[in-house]
Amino acid sequence: MKKIQAIRGMNDILPEDSALWQYLEGVIQQTLAGFSYREIRFPIMEKTELFKRSIGEVTDIVEKEMYTFLDRNEESLTLRPEGTASCVRACEENGLLYNQTQRLWYMGPMFRYEKPQKGRYRQFHQVGIETYGVAGPDIDAELLLLSYELFKKLGLTHCVELQINSLGSDVARSEFRQALVTYLQSHKDALDEDSRRRLDTNPLRILDSKSEATQRLLDAGPSLSDYLDEESRQHFAEFTQLLDACGVPYTINNRLVRGLDYYNRTAFEWVTDKLGAQSAVCAGGRYDNLVAQLGGKATPAVGFAIGLERLLLLLQGEGSVPSLGTVDVYLAAVGNVQAQALSLSSEVRRALPNLKVFMHCGGGSFKNQLKKADKSGASIALILGENEAVAGTVTVKYLREEKPQLTLPQGELVEVLAEINN
Question: Do the Cβ atoms of 191 and 184 come closer than 8 Å?
Fold first, then answer.
């Protein structure tokens, strides 16, 4: 019988990798808690109309990449390709937005039908940060300060660069879009194939084309900065002043745009040259019109998302990761001592909840159990044989240090382990 394998582009996270995932998620959660952001959780599946109305029907995501199907009631449902629209829907539906401010985060899988490659998968994971109810540039700056602090904690500031831009108001962007299309239509033959396709659907995305010929063509074309409204210019100027005051380094990239229709004003990306074509590890911006676009009252909003797979690749290659051993203490239970071993291991876990205790199950010789203890990465082996069980003692053997083993009463074990753990 043929074995069933995982869907292409949807990967298992194996035990030897999960410790690094947990470390990264822990650093992220700790950083977010330090900024007083609260977690929100919502379903991985939504009505398809939510994404069509928010992302835009003529975007690559909606046209080509969404996992969409009809359920048994003939209703069109979609696995979420991004989190912002779902977050807005959840907040609006549950009354969290009107006349309120919110600082929220979420973490979990997203789904897009793309060609799988390093750092880009069909099921991928993001942490998203979304803020609502604050119109000024101070919240934009706080988000970038938050992301900068996260990169510092992970030891990655040397290999990421913050790029920022202003997309202006909807009116300003629409005027620029028309000027850009007019200009590029007259040079259509010089565009790369992907840009020619986008010219009729999402022309602003041509600005971040990877084609050198297209970029040279854009050099002589209209610039988004020339079309910005005065209010957006002032917002962006104050935003950069705040970044300067916080010591967050950045580069202004006048061609930086976002791939989704709902963005306005502030746009930003943290990029790296360490991951090949997948250069962005964190991206976001302001989306003041999305809540109204989805049926709510106009609400200023700004947020960003980090791709966890890309961040993990960067962390493994460039970051600073502490030792992530899964076992601190290995309890070898030799002979008919399982009841006492279970009781002793439980006592240690209750008294020292931060200690990772592995109790050997399934029997086996003393020599074999010690081999497994050493292979586990534990720093200490506790040996409980039938003689120790009768005497009420336990033997402590150091596996990573040149120290003599000692045998002590079981009642003193917690105190000794506490001293070692400190």
Answer: yes
Tokens found for residue 163: 């790029």
Whole-angstrom distance, CA of residue 403 vs CA of residue 415: 18
Dihedral sign from CA coordinates of 127, 131, 135, 140: negative
Beta carbons of 46 and 94 less than 8 angstroms apart: no
Has residue 63 got a pLDDT over 80?
Answer: no
H-type alpha helices, 290-391: 290-293, 308-318, 338-351, 366-375, 386-391
Provide mean pLDDT across the span 216-235. 84
What proportion of the chain, given as a percentage, has pLDDT over 70?
Answer: 97
Residue identified by tokens 């202004």 is 252
pLDDT: is 212 or 74 the higher one? Answer: 74
CA–CA dist 132, 94 (Å, integer): 14
Distance of CA 291 to the CA centre of its chain: 23
Q: Give me the residues paired with residue 107 across strands.
A: 127
HEC profile of 231-244 = HHHHHHHHHHHHHH
| Dist CA 33 CA 37 (whole Å) | 6
Neighbouring C-beta atoms of residue 293, cutoff 10 Å: 15
Please state the pTM of the whole predicted model: 0.85
- Per-residue pLDDT averaged across 333-360, rounded? 92
DSSP 139: H
pLDDT of residue 158: 92
Beta-bridged to residue 304, according to DSSP, are 129, 284
pLDDT at 196 (0 to 100): 80
- pLDDT of 161 reads 94
| Whether pLDDT at 106 is above 90 | yes
Confidence of residue 308 (pLDDT cuts 50, 70, 90): very high
- Rounded Cα distance between 147 and 249, Å, is 12
Query: Cα–Cα distance between 109 and 308 in angstroms, integer?
Result: 10
Per-residue confidence (pLDDT) for residue 152, from 0 to 100: 95
Q: Cα(410)–Cα(262) distance, rounded to whole angstroms?
A: 64
DSSP H or E segment with residue 22 = helix 15-34
| Closest to 281 measured CA to CA, from 165, 151, 158, 152 | 151
Q: 329-333 and 301-307: which strand pairing?
A: unpaired
Helix (H, G, I), strand (E, B) or coil at 329: strand
Identify any residues that bridge with 111 across adjacent strands, giving them in sequence order: 123
DSSP state of 120: B
